[in-house]
TrEMBL record:
<keyword id="KW-0028">Amino-acid biosynthesis</keyword>
<feature type="modified residue" description="N6-(pyridoxal phosphate)lysine">
    <location>
        <position position="199"/>
    </location>
</feature>
<keyword id="KW-0664">Pyridoxine biosynthesis</keyword>
<feature type="binding site">
    <location>
        <position position="42"/>
    </location>
    <ligand>
        <name>L-glutamate</name>
    </ligand>
</feature>
<keyword id="KW-0718">Serine biosynthesis</keyword>
<feature type="domain" description="Aminotransferase class V">
    <location>
        <begin position="5"/>
        <end position="356"/>
    </location>
</feature>
<keyword id="KW-0963">Cytoplasm</keyword>
<dbReference type="InterPro" id="IPR000192">
    <property type="entry name" value="Aminotrans_V_dom"/>
</dbReference>
<dbReference type="InterPro" id="IPR020578">
    <property type="entry name" value="Aminotrans_V_PyrdxlP_BS"/>
</dbReference>
<dbReference type="GO" id="GO:0004648">
    <property type="term" value="F:O-phospho-L-serine:2-oxoglutarate aminotransferase activity"/>
</dbReference>
<feature type="binding site">
    <location>
        <position position="175"/>
    </location>
    <ligand>
        <name>pyridoxal 5'-phosphate</name>
    </ligand>
</feature>
<comment type="pathway">
    <text>Amino-acid biosynthesis; L-serine biosynthesis; L-serine from 3-phospho-D-glycerate: step 2/3.</text>
</comment>
<comment type="pathway">
    <text>Cofactor biosynthesis; pyridoxine 5'-phosphate biosynthesis; pyridoxine 5'-phosphate from D-erythrose 4-phosphate: step 3/5.</text>
</comment>
<dbReference type="GO" id="GO:0005737">
    <property type="term" value="C:cytoplasm"/>
</dbReference>
<dbReference type="InterPro" id="IPR015421">
    <property type="entry name" value="PyrdxlP-dep_Trfase_major"/>
</dbReference>
<feature type="binding site">
    <location>
        <position position="101"/>
    </location>
    <ligand>
        <name>pyridoxal 5'-phosphate</name>
    </ligand>
</feature>
<dbReference type="InterPro" id="IPR015422">
    <property type="entry name" value="PyrdxlP-dep_Trfase_small"/>
</dbReference>
Length: 368
Protein backbone atom coordinates (compact mmCIF):
# COMPACT_ATOMS: atom_id res chain seq x y z
CA UNK A 1 0.00 0.00 0.00
CA UNK A 2 1.36 3.43 -0.87
CA UNK A 3 0.17 6.27 1.28
CA UNK A 4 -0.57 9.80 0.01
CA UNK A 5 1.79 12.65 0.90
CA UNK A 6 0.43 14.65 3.80
CA UNK A 7 1.42 18.36 3.96
CA UNK A 8 -0.48 19.14 7.17
CA UNK A 9 1.00 21.80 9.46
CA UNK A 10 0.25 19.62 12.46
CA UNK A 11 -0.67 17.12 13.64
CA UNK A 12 1.51 16.12 10.75
CA UNK A 13 2.85 13.16 8.82
CA UNK A 14 4.94 10.72 10.83
CA UNK A 15 7.70 8.49 9.43
CA UNK A 16 5.95 5.47 7.95
CA UNK A 17 8.38 3.03 9.55
CA UNK A 18 7.52 4.47 12.98
CA UNK A 19 3.81 3.94 12.38
CA UNK A 20 4.45 0.39 11.19
CA UNK A 21 6.56 -0.48 14.23
CA UNK A 22 3.94 0.98 16.56
CA UNK A 23 1.32 -1.16 14.81
CA UNK A 24 3.42 -4.29 15.35
CA UNK A 25 3.91 -3.43 19.03
CA UNK A 26 0.35 -2.26 19.62
CA UNK A 27 -1.03 -5.30 21.47
CA UNK A 28 2.15 -6.57 23.08
CA UNK A 29 5.13 -4.31 23.65
CA UNK A 30 8.27 -6.45 23.46
CA UNK A 31 6.79 -9.49 25.21
CA UNK A 32 5.38 -7.50 28.13
CA UNK A 33 1.84 -8.65 27.30
CA UNK A 34 0.72 -5.01 27.36
CA UNK A 35 0.18 -2.19 24.94
CA UNK A 36 2.29 0.82 25.91
CA UNK A 37 -1.06 2.58 26.51
CA UNK A 38 -1.86 0.08 29.26
CA UNK A 39 1.37 0.38 31.22
CA UNK A 40 1.80 2.14 34.54
CA UNK A 41 3.96 5.20 34.00
CA UNK A 42 5.96 4.14 37.05
CA UNK A 43 6.48 0.56 35.95
CA UNK A 44 9.85 -0.74 34.72
CA UNK A 45 8.78 -1.10 31.09
CA UNK A 46 7.49 2.42 30.63
CA UNK A 47 10.31 3.95 32.68
CA UNK A 48 12.79 2.38 30.27
CA UNK A 49 10.84 3.73 27.26
CA UNK A 50 10.81 7.21 28.76
CA UNK A 51 14.47 7.22 29.80
CA UNK A 52 15.56 6.00 26.38
CA UNK A 53 13.47 8.69 24.68
CA UNK A 54 15.01 11.40 26.83
CA UNK A 55 18.54 10.11 26.31
CA UNK A 56 18.08 9.87 22.55
CA UNK A 57 16.65 13.37 22.36
CA UNK A 58 19.53 14.78 24.42
CA UNK A 59 21.97 13.12 22.06
CA UNK A 60 20.14 14.18 18.88
CA UNK A 61 19.84 17.83 19.89
CA UNK A 62 23.19 17.90 21.75
CA UNK A 63 21.45 19.29 24.82
CA UNK A 64 24.15 20.30 27.37
CA UNK A 65 24.07 18.77 30.85
CA UNK A 66 22.99 22.02 32.55
CA UNK A 67 19.67 21.84 30.70
CA UNK A 68 16.75 19.71 31.84
CA UNK A 69 14.44 17.98 29.38
CA UNK A 70 10.80 18.01 30.50
CA UNK A 71 7.93 16.06 28.96
CA UNK A 72 4.81 18.07 29.64
CA UNK A 73 1.27 18.58 28.33
CA UNK A 74 -0.82 21.50 27.16
CA UNK A 75 0.97 22.24 23.89
CA UNK A 76 2.55 25.46 22.74
CA UNK A 77 -0.46 27.49 23.79
CA UNK A 78 -0.28 26.33 27.40
CA UNK A 79 3.45 27.18 27.38
CA UNK A 80 2.48 30.73 26.46
CA UNK A 81 1.14 30.93 30.02
CA UNK A 82 3.48 28.45 31.72
CA UNK A 83 6.63 30.29 30.64
CA UNK A 84 5.64 33.65 32.20
CA UNK A 85 4.26 31.83 35.26
CA UNK A 86 7.73 30.33 35.75
CA UNK A 87 10.13 32.93 34.45
CA UNK A 88 8.60 36.40 34.56
CA UNK A 89 8.60 36.94 38.34
CA UNK A 90 5.60 39.14 37.53
CA UNK A 91 7.88 41.72 35.89
CA UNK A 92 8.49 42.81 32.32
CA UNK A 93 9.17 40.51 29.38
CA UNK A 94 10.15 41.42 25.81
CA UNK A 95 8.62 39.86 22.71
CA UNK A 96 9.89 39.81 19.17
CA UNK A 97 6.76 39.49 17.05
CA UNK A 98 7.36 37.82 13.70
CA UNK A 99 4.00 36.19 12.99
CA UNK A 100 0.79 34.79 14.42
CA UNK A 101 2.37 32.56 17.04
CA UNK A 102 4.66 35.07 18.71
CA UNK A 103 1.77 37.53 18.66
CA UNK A 104 -0.39 35.02 20.55
CA UNK A 105 2.43 34.37 23.00
CA UNK A 106 2.76 38.07 23.85
CA UNK A 107 -0.98 38.43 24.42
CA UNK A 108 -1.12 35.47 26.78
CA UNK A 109 2.00 36.47 28.72
CA UNK A 110 0.44 39.84 29.40
CA UNK A 111 -1.97 38.12 31.82
CA UNK A 112 0.91 37.23 34.13
CA UNK A 113 3.55 39.82 33.33
CA UNK A 114 4.04 43.06 31.46
CA UNK A 115 4.55 41.94 27.87
CA UNK A 116 6.37 44.51 25.74
CA UNK A 117 6.87 44.37 21.99
CA UNK A 118 10.59 44.82 21.37
CA UNK A 119 10.25 44.47 17.60
CA UNK A 120 7.58 43.51 15.11
CA UNK A 121 7.29 42.71 11.42
CA UNK A 122 3.55 43.33 11.39
CA UNK A 123 3.91 46.31 9.03
CA UNK A 124 5.07 44.06 6.18
CA UNK A 125 2.50 41.34 6.86
CA UNK A 126 5.00 39.11 8.74
CA UNK A 127 7.23 38.48 5.75
CA UNK A 128 10.63 39.53 7.09
CA UNK A 129 12.69 39.44 10.27
CA UNK A 130 13.50 42.65 12.14
CA UNK A 131 17.31 42.76 12.53
CA UNK A 132 18.34 42.07 16.11
CA UNK A 133 20.29 45.35 16.33
CA UNK A 134 16.96 47.20 15.98
CA UNK A 135 15.21 45.37 18.84
CA UNK A 136 14.24 47.54 21.80
CA UNK A 137 15.25 45.28 24.66
CA UNK A 138 14.63 46.56 28.19
CA UNK A 139 17.33 46.30 30.84
CA UNK A 140 14.69 44.94 33.22
CA UNK A 141 13.37 42.22 30.90
CA UNK A 142 13.05 38.88 32.70
CA UNK A 143 13.36 37.09 29.39
CA UNK A 144 13.10 37.69 25.66
CA UNK A 145 10.65 35.56 23.69
CA UNK A 146 10.64 34.74 20.00
CA UNK A 147 9.12 32.08 17.80
CA UNK A 148 12.04 30.57 15.91
CA UNK A 149 9.77 29.23 13.17
CA UNK A 150 6.43 30.86 12.48
CA UNK A 151 4.27 27.98 11.27
CA UNK A 152 1.55 30.14 9.73
CA UNK A 153 3.61 32.88 8.08
CA UNK A 154 6.55 30.71 7.08
CA UNK A 155 9.25 32.88 8.66
CA UNK A 156 12.24 31.19 10.29
CA UNK A 157 15.26 32.40 12.25
CA UNK A 158 18.10 30.59 10.52
CA UNK A 159 20.36 31.84 13.28
CA UNK A 160 19.29 32.58 16.84
CA UNK A 161 20.21 36.04 18.13
CA UNK A 162 23.11 36.45 20.54
CA UNK A 163 21.37 38.52 23.22
CA UNK A 164 24.61 39.09 25.13
CA UNK A 165 26.14 40.73 22.07
CA UNK A 166 23.11 43.04 22.04
CA UNK A 167 23.85 44.07 25.62
CA UNK A 168 21.00 41.99 27.05
CA UNK A 169 21.57 39.55 29.90
CA UNK A 170 18.04 38.12 29.93
CA UNK A 171 17.55 34.50 28.87
CA UNK A 172 16.17 33.82 25.42
CA UNK A 173 12.95 31.78 25.24
CA UNK A 174 12.18 30.17 21.91
CA UNK A 175 8.99 28.54 20.69
CA UNK A 176 10.51 25.92 18.39
CA UNK A 177 7.29 23.89 18.00
CA UNK A 178 7.40 23.71 14.23
CA UNK A 179 11.08 23.17 13.51
CA UNK A 180 12.36 21.29 16.54
CA UNK A 181 14.80 18.56 15.50
CA UNK A 182 14.91 19.84 11.92
CA UNK A 183 18.36 21.35 12.49
CA UNK A 184 20.82 21.74 15.38
CA UNK A 185 20.15 24.25 18.21
CA UNK A 186 22.78 26.69 19.50
CA UNK A 187 22.12 26.17 23.21
CA UNK A 188 24.68 28.83 24.17
CA UNK A 189 22.07 31.38 23.04
CA UNK A 190 19.00 29.78 24.63
CA UNK A 191 17.57 29.74 28.16
CA UNK A 192 14.42 27.79 27.43
CA UNK A 193 12.91 26.14 24.37
CA UNK A 194 9.43 24.69 24.10
CA UNK A 195 7.38 22.98 21.46
CA UNK A 196 4.39 20.75 20.89
CA UNK A 197 5.31 17.33 19.53
CA UNK A 198 2.75 17.10 16.76
CA UNK A 199 4.89 18.38 13.90
CA UNK A 200 8.36 16.88 14.08
CA UNK A 201 8.41 14.66 17.14
CA UNK A 202 5.30 12.52 17.34
CA UNK A 203 1.58 12.71 18.01
CA UNK A 204 -0.20 15.57 19.78
CA UNK A 205 -0.39 15.45 23.56
CA UNK A 206 3.30 15.74 24.39
CA UNK A 207 4.97 19.10 24.94
CA UNK A 208 8.74 19.31 25.05
CA UNK A 209 10.47 21.84 27.29
CA UNK A 210 14.24 22.18 27.44
CA UNK A 211 15.21 24.55 30.23
CA UNK A 212 18.49 25.74 31.73
CA UNK A 213 18.72 24.63 35.33
CA UNK A 214 19.22 28.10 36.82
CA UNK A 215 15.79 29.10 35.50
CA UNK A 216 14.03 26.51 37.65
CA UNK A 217 12.51 27.40 41.01
CA UNK A 218 11.23 30.93 40.31
CA UNK A 219 7.56 30.18 39.61
CA UNK A 220 4.89 32.61 40.78
CA UNK A 221 2.85 31.38 43.76
CA UNK A 222 -0.24 31.01 41.56
CA UNK A 223 1.53 28.70 39.10
CA UNK A 224 -0.24 25.30 39.05
CA UNK A 225 2.06 22.69 40.63
CA UNK A 226 1.84 20.47 37.56
CA UNK A 227 3.18 23.38 35.48
CA UNK A 228 5.97 24.44 37.83
CA UNK A 229 9.11 23.50 35.89
CA UNK A 230 11.01 22.72 39.09
CA UNK A 231 8.32 20.33 40.30
CA UNK A 232 8.22 18.66 36.88
CA UNK A 233 12.03 18.43 36.75
CA UNK A 234 12.38 17.13 40.32
CA UNK A 235 9.91 14.37 39.51
CA UNK A 236 11.49 13.33 36.22
CA UNK A 237 8.42 14.53 34.27
CA UNK A 238 6.26 12.17 36.35
CA UNK A 239 4.71 14.55 38.89
CA UNK A 240 1.46 13.86 37.10
CA UNK A 241 0.81 11.03 34.65
CA UNK A 242 2.73 12.00 31.51
CA UNK A 243 1.32 11.42 28.00
CA UNK A 244 2.80 7.93 27.93
CA UNK A 245 1.82 6.81 24.44
CA UNK A 246 2.91 10.09 22.86
CA UNK A 247 6.28 9.76 24.62
CA UNK A 248 6.64 6.23 23.25
CA UNK A 249 5.84 7.42 19.71
CA UNK A 250 8.28 10.31 20.06
CA UNK A 251 10.88 7.80 21.25
CA UNK A 252 10.40 5.73 18.11
CA UNK A 253 10.71 8.91 16.06
CA UNK A 254 13.99 9.76 17.81
CA UNK A 255 15.34 6.32 16.90
CA UNK A 256 14.29 6.91 13.30
CA UNK A 257 16.04 10.29 13.37
CA UNK A 258 19.23 8.70 14.71
CA UNK A 259 19.25 6.37 11.72
CA UNK A 260 19.09 9.22 9.17
CA UNK A 261 22.23 9.74 7.08
CA UNK A 262 23.16 12.21 4.34
CA UNK A 263 26.52 13.19 2.88
CA UNK A 264 28.52 11.51 5.65
CA UNK A 265 26.34 13.10 8.34
CA UNK A 266 23.84 11.44 10.63
CA UNK A 267 20.93 12.32 12.92
CA UNK A 268 19.83 15.94 13.04
CA UNK A 269 22.74 17.13 10.90
CA UNK A 270 21.64 14.70 8.20
CA UNK A 271 17.97 15.62 8.42
CA UNK A 272 18.97 19.29 8.16
CA UNK A 273 20.64 18.56 4.81
CA UNK A 274 17.53 16.74 3.62
CA UNK A 275 15.32 19.60 4.80
CA UNK A 276 17.47 22.15 2.97
CA UNK A 277 17.22 20.15 -0.24
CA UNK A 278 13.44 19.78 0.02
CA UNK A 279 12.85 23.47 0.76
CA UNK A 280 15.25 24.59 -1.97
CA UNK A 281 13.40 22.46 -4.52
CA UNK A 282 10.01 23.96 -3.70
CA UNK A 283 11.14 27.58 -3.30
CA UNK A 284 13.13 27.59 -6.51
CA UNK A 285 10.18 26.16 -8.43
CA UNK A 286 7.86 28.84 -6.98
CA UNK A 287 10.37 31.66 -7.59
CA UNK A 288 10.81 30.64 -11.22
CA UNK A 289 7.09 30.57 -11.86
CA UNK A 290 4.76 33.36 -12.99
CA UNK A 291 1.82 31.33 -11.71
CA UNK A 292 2.77 30.82 -8.04
CA UNK A 293 4.27 33.15 -5.49
CA UNK A 294 5.86 33.15 -2.02
CA UNK A 295 6.00 36.52 -0.27
CA UNK A 296 8.56 35.89 2.49
CA UNK A 297 11.98 37.57 2.33
CA UNK A 298 14.55 35.10 1.06
CA UNK A 299 16.85 35.29 4.09
CA UNK A 300 14.18 34.10 6.53
CA UNK A 301 12.09 31.61 4.61
CA UNK A 302 11.03 28.62 6.63
CA UNK A 303 12.34 25.23 5.61
CA UNK A 304 9.35 23.59 7.29
CA UNK A 305 6.28 25.64 6.37
CA UNK A 306 6.05 27.11 2.89
CA UNK A 307 3.04 29.34 2.28
CA UNK A 308 2.40 30.08 -1.37
CA UNK A 309 -0.26 31.70 -3.50
CA UNK A 310 -1.73 31.17 -6.92
CA UNK A 311 -1.55 34.58 -8.58
CA UNK A 312 -5.11 33.95 -9.71
CA UNK A 313 -6.87 32.99 -6.51
CA UNK A 314 -10.03 32.01 -8.39
CA UNK A 315 -8.20 28.77 -9.17
CA UNK A 316 -7.62 27.81 -5.52
CA UNK A 317 -10.44 25.29 -5.23
CA UNK A 318 -9.46 23.54 -8.45
CA UNK A 319 -5.84 23.41 -7.27
CA UNK A 320 -6.81 21.82 -3.96
CA UNK A 321 -9.21 19.26 -5.36
CA UNK A 322 -6.70 18.24 -8.04
CA UNK A 323 -4.01 17.92 -5.38
CA UNK A 324 -6.23 15.71 -3.26
CA UNK A 325 -6.93 13.48 -6.28
CA UNK A 326 -3.18 13.27 -6.91
CA UNK A 327 -2.55 12.06 -3.34
CA UNK A 328 -1.27 15.39 -2.02
CA UNK A 329 -3.18 16.16 1.15
CA UNK A 330 -3.86 19.17 3.39
CA UNK A 331 -2.33 21.93 1.29
CA UNK A 332 -4.85 24.63 2.14
CA UNK A 333 -3.25 27.70 3.72
CA UNK A 334 -4.02 28.92 7.22
CA UNK A 335 -7.22 30.96 7.29
CA UNK A 336 -5.41 34.11 8.45
CA UNK A 337 -3.09 34.06 5.41
CA UNK A 338 -5.11 32.27 2.74
CA UNK A 339 -3.63 30.59 -0.32
CA UNK A 340 -1.73 27.36 0.15
CA UNK A 341 0.79 26.04 2.63
CA UNK A 342 3.05 23.04 2.25
CA UNK A 343 4.42 21.84 5.56
CA UNK A 344 7.42 19.66 4.83
CA UNK A 345 8.60 18.45 8.19
CA UNK A 346 11.30 15.84 8.82
CA UNK A 347 9.01 12.95 7.92
CA UNK A 348 8.18 14.31 4.44
CA UNK A 349 10.47 12.51 2.00
CA UNK A 350 12.10 14.34 -0.91
CA UNK A 351 9.83 12.28 -3.19
CA UNK A 352 6.81 13.98 -1.61
CA UNK A 353 8.13 17.44 -2.49
CA UNK A 354 9.03 16.22 -5.99
CA UNK A 355 5.46 14.95 -6.39
CA UNK A 356 4.10 18.31 -5.24
CA UNK A 357 6.30 20.24 -7.68
CA UNK A 358 5.25 17.94 -10.54
CA UNK A 359 1.61 18.47 -9.69
CA UNK A 360 2.07 22.25 -9.48
CA UNK A 361 3.77 22.28 -12.87
CA UNK A 362 1.04 20.17 -14.45
CA UNK A 363 -1.74 22.22 -12.87
CA UNK A 364 -0.22 25.41 -14.26
CA UNK A 365 -0.07 23.86 -17.75
CA UNK A 366 -3.68 22.74 -17.72
CA UNK A 367 -4.77 26.24 -16.71
CA UNK A 368 -2.94 28.05 -19.50
N1 LIG B 1 3.53 27.66 18.49
C1 LIG B 1 3.73 27.31 17.21
C2 LIG B 1 4.93 27.82 16.50
C3 LIG B 1 2.79 26.47 16.58
O1 LIG B 1 2.99 26.13 15.30
C4 LIG B 1 1.68 26.00 17.30
C5 LIG B 1 0.67 25.05 16.68
N2 LIG B 1 0.53 25.05 15.34
C6 LIG B 1 1.52 26.42 18.61
C7 LIG B 1 2.46 27.24 19.18
C8 LIG B 1 0.33 25.98 19.41
O2 LIG B 1 0.49 24.67 19.75
P1 LIG B 1 -0.65 23.80 20.45
O3 LIG B 1 -1.82 23.77 19.53
O4 LIG B 1 0.02 22.49 20.65
O5 LIG B 1 -0.98 24.47 21.75
Amino acid sequence: MTRPYNFSAGPAAMPESVLRLAAVEMLDWQGSGMSVMEMSHRGKAFMSICETAERDLRELLAVPSQFRILFMQGGGLAENAIVPLNLSRGGAVDFVVTGGWSQKSAKEANKYATARIAASNEADGHTSLPTPASWKLGKDAQYVHLCSNETIHGVEFHELPDLKALGCDAPLVIDFSSHVASRPVDWSRVGLAFGGAQKNLGPAGLTLVVVREDLLGHALAVCPSAFDYKTVADNGSMYNTPPTYAIYMAGLTFQWLKRQTAGGLSGVAAIEQQNKAKAELLYSFIDNSQFYQNKVAKDCRSRMNIPFFLRDEARNEAFLSGAQAAGLLQLKGHKSVGGMRASIYNAMPLEGVQALVSYMREFEMTQA
